[in-house]
Design brief:
Helix content is 30%, strand content 22%. The chain has 390 residues and is α/β, with parallel strands linked by helices.
Length: 390
C-alpha cells in the first residue's frame, strides 16, 4: 500500500509537519539549523519494528548521532550499528549495552578493534583477509559476519563496490575466519540507501540466498543474516507506510531464510530523516544573463555544510517558503561556498516562488539523516550545521 505524505502525516499527529515546522516559524536562526523531533523518531521506530517483527533493529548511528536520538533509542530497546570507536563510545555513554552494538564498518583501525573487544562488543563485520586477521589478533574469538557485494537494486543512493566481497570469495573468507579462531556466523549486505519499493529487494535477496546456500553446503552452520538498511524516507515520491514496507521486506527475507536465521536490520535514513527539517536562508537570487530560463538561488547551506547527499542530485529535498502561495518558476540551487562543486540541483531544477529574494527563510524537509553528520567543521569559514532537538 502506498500513501502520500499528507496521508502519512494524518496517521501520525506528532509529525514534522506540525511540530518542527511550527518551531522553525516561531524562532529566528542566525545560521543553518537542523531541528529534530525526537518523538517523531520514536514513532518511526515503532512503525518499523511492527513490520520487521523478529528482526533486531540496529540503528545506523552514522545517519544522525544526536545524543538525544541515541538516548531515546536506547530506552526503546534498539540495538546499534557503529562505524567507529567514537560511535561506540557515544552509544555506551548513553546506556547501550555492548552486546547490542555491532562494529559494522569493514575498514577498522586495529586499536579500535581492540578497544571494542575490551569494551565487550562481540560482533564485527569484515570483507577481506587482512581485516579478519586484524580482528583475530585484537578481538580473539569474536563473532564475524562477511559483507557481500550485491548488484545495484535501483536505490537512489547505491552502495556498491566500496564495501563487500564478491561471491567467489565469500565462503573462503568464512573458512579463513574459522581457521583464525573466530566464529563466522553469517553474511551482511546493503541493498542501497533509499530503496523506495520493497519489491526492489527481491533480486538482491536471491543473490544472498544463493551464497548462503553455498556456505551451508560447505559445512558452515550460519545463524545470522544482516539485511542492512535501505528503508526509505519521503522526499516527494510516494513510498509505502514504514510498517507495510518493513513487513513486505521481511516476508521476502523469511521466504529465503526461514525462522532459524537471526535477522538484523540497520535502518538509518528510514528512522530519522523525516524527524528533521533545516531552517535556512536565501542569500542571493540572480540570473547569469537576461535570457536565462532559470534563476540561480544561493542558500546559506550547501554540500559542505550538510547537504552532501545532493551529490549527483541523488536525494531530492523538498522546500517550504513563506511565499508558497505565489507563482513558481525553475531555479538552479546552490550553496554559499567558494567552490564550483557546491551546486545542489542543476540537471533537474527545482521550482520555487518567483518572488523569492535575499533574506527569505527557506525550510528544507526530511533532513534528519546524513546532514549534521556530513557537515564540515568550517569549510570557507562557515559554521557547521547547528542542531536543536525538541
Amino acid at each position: 500500500m502506498h500513501v502520500t505524505q499528507a496521508e502519512f502525516t494524518a496517521r501520525f499527529p506528532v509529525s514534522t509537519a506540525s511540530r518542527v515546522e511550527q518551531f522553525i516559524r516561531q524562532n529566528a536562526f542566525d545560521r543553518p539549523t537542523l531541528v529534530l523531533d525526537v518523538d517523531r523518531v520514536e514513532t518511526q521506530y515503532h512503525a518499523l519494528k511492527a513490520g520487521l517483527g523478529r528482526a533486531d533493529i540496529h540503528f545506523a548511528v552514522k545517519a544522525n548521532p544526536a545524543r538525544e536520538i541515541i538516548e531515546r533509542l536506547v530506552a526503546l530497546g534498539s540495538h546499534f550499528d557503529a562505524a567507529s570507536r567514537g560511535e561506540i563510545e557515544l552509544c555506551l555513554s548513553l546506556g547501550a549495552h555492548p552486546e547490542t552494538i555491532s562494529f559494522g564498518n569493514t575498514v577498522k583501525r586495529a586499536s579500535d578493534i581492540a578497544f571494542a573487544h575490551q569494551a565487550g562488543l562481540t560482533l564485527f563485520a569484515a570483507d577481506a583477509e587482512e581485516e579478519l586477521e586484524k580482528i583475530a589478533e585484537n578481538a580473539p574469538g569474536a563473532q564475524v559476519y562477511i559483507r557481500l557485494i550485491v548488484e545495484a537494486s535501483g536505490a537512489d543512493w547505491p552502495l556498491t563496490r566500496k564495501f563487500g566481497t564478491a561471491r567467489d570469495k565469500a565462503v573462503r573468507l568464512l573458512a579463513l575466519a574459522h581457521d583464525l579462531g573466530l566464529a563466522p556466523v553469517g553474511f551482511s549486505f546493503h541493498v542501497g540507501s533509499q530503496t523506495r519499493k520493497p519489491e526492489m529487494w527481491s533480486s538482491t535477496l536471491d543473490q544472498v540466498a544463493a551464497i548462503w546456500a553455498e556456505a551451508r553446503a560447505a559445512g558452515f552452520a550460519l545463524t545470522l543474516i544482516n539485511i542492512g538498511g535501505g528503508f526509505p524516507a519521503f522526499y516527494g515520491d510516494d513510498i509505502a507506510h514504514p510498517t507495510d514496507y518493513a513487513a513486505a521486506v521481511m516476508a521476502e527475507v523469511e521466504a529465503r531464510f526461514p525462522g532459524s536465521a537471526h535477522v538484523m536490520a540497520e535502518p538509518g535514513r528510514g528512522l530519522v530523516a523525516e524527524a528533521g527539517m533545516i531552517a535556512a536562508e536565501v542569500l542571493l537570487v540572480s540570473r547569469k544573463s537576461d535570457d536565462d530560463l532559470c534563476r540561480w538561488v544561493y542558500l546559506d547551506i550547501g554540500k559542505f555544510s550538510g547537504l552532501a547527499e545532493t551529490m549527483d542530485e541523488a536525494i531530492r529535498y523538498q522546500f517550504i517558503t513563506d511565499r508558497d502561495h505565489e507563482d513558481t518558476g525553475p531555479c538552479i540551487l546552490a550553496g554559499p561556498s567558494c567552490d564550483s562543486a557546491d551546486v545542489l540541483y542543476e540537471k533537474r531544477p527545482v521550482s520555487l516562488p518567483l518572488g523569492l529574494k535575499s533574506g527569505d527563510r527557506i525550510v528544507i524537509r526530511s533532513c534528519g539523516a546524513y546532514t549534521s553528520s556530513y557537515s564540515s567543521v568550517g569549510f570557507n569559514g562557515f559554521p557547521p550545521l547547528d542542531v536543536v532537538t525538541i
